Fold these 2 entries.
Entry 1:
Amino acid sequence: MSSTPNVTRATSDGASWLASAGAYPRSTLALWRERPDAPVVLPCGTAFDVVSAPAIFGRRMLDRLWDEGPGSGPVALFRGRTLLFAAPGTAQRLPSLLTWEEWGSHRTEAVPPLPCHGTGDAVTVPALGGGDSPAAAPGSCRWLVAPDTRHPWLPGPEVVLWAAVRAARSAVRISIFPPADQGAKVYDVSRRR
């Protein structure tokens, strides 16, 4: 059972932190006051970076962060992807850590690519209310862990790598033995004298 917090609505402090990522924070806050159900596109690289994972793998990473690690910062779900908000600079450093971990050489559904969004990129941020209104379309943007403070703790690249490796290990059984030859003849030698 996961101990991930059930915070699906951003607080006013969380909204202020999100808005601080943009060039015009007051305009973003005014838009949210007028339309609290509106998702907004915000730039990455100053207040946060974002690591994008397929929804199920991202949920496994989130569970590892909360069950075995330090927890997470805000986390959103958008178009079948889990968006983990990370410390600025993570998008620059994490790809080299993943390469060092030989992440790409084990590419399977259980070890997916993890695109990183940093300086020069932008992401869609869920509505403050979480996007869980009855009118919200399936697969729409919503918070799994909404921002609730002006200075949220954000995992850095090493913490995100740790969570990804643990999530992959939990999804894949790794053996040092090669797979058995299905066409091989097997003899029972246990009864021989």
Entry 2:
Amino acid sequence: MTARQSTQGYSTSTVLGRRLGGELTKLRTAAGLNQTQAAKTLTASTTKVAKMEGGWVPIRDPDIRALCELYGVHDPGAIGGLLELARVDRERRKAKGWWDGYTIHGVMQEYVTLESAATAVKAWQPAFVPGLLQTPEYVRALRNGPTAELAKGPDPDEEFISTRLSRQQRLTNDPPLSLHVVIYEAVLRNFPGGAPTAAGQLEHLTRLAELPSLTLQIFPFGAGTHPGLNGSFNIISFAAPGAMDVVYVEAPFAQRWVEGGEATADYDELFEKIAERSLSEQESVSFLHKLCKEL
């Protein structure tokens, strides 16, 4: 779903809300029940159930438990995952954080709040150094170089840089964000801003690679091609690995969310295949040091 599709009147359909609603819809369908029957159990209107399943309204824990009972779901792990997703969605809807001090446009408004609430992110990047790992100099060069039409948004440069640096605090917060990044070799050989920007960014990556919460790998030219070269994507997790994940997919002039269970699982499988064909963490750091010496 695109950012434009996520508003309707005074309601907001959040990524997490749609993810939760999709799970409940799947359980209801598997039980052979309709929205009217679900509404009767909740002593609510069918319209409310439709809004819940569409992610338009936050869902209370008692409603989730009642629906699970109706749908024949008794596994504590499955119910706990739904309750956790609902909790994070409710908090995200009312949350105020560092981002309130900045003007953030478009789909990034939703992304930064999800990233702040996430426990883990897996990121594949075939074109640029991931935002969480960028230096200020790299951001400036990116927004003022040949790729400016893609990288430059409506935000003033320095405000945009401050926003990005604030996002990076998740790497050292307590607890830190668990981040697994795979970067295509081409990203590290085609730097905006030339050698000075490249040197600072490569050294920054080698320092960050020492963080215990960061797994950094490089996908080398010699590993061949794969479907991921079509564009970058981030898999955002909020609980146990694979539970209720959402995926942010980015391409030139377009971004979208992938929220379905099977669809997100496909991206997770693709990421693992990319990681398997990439250099190990130690090999990747050695590769970064080699590139630094070549400058």
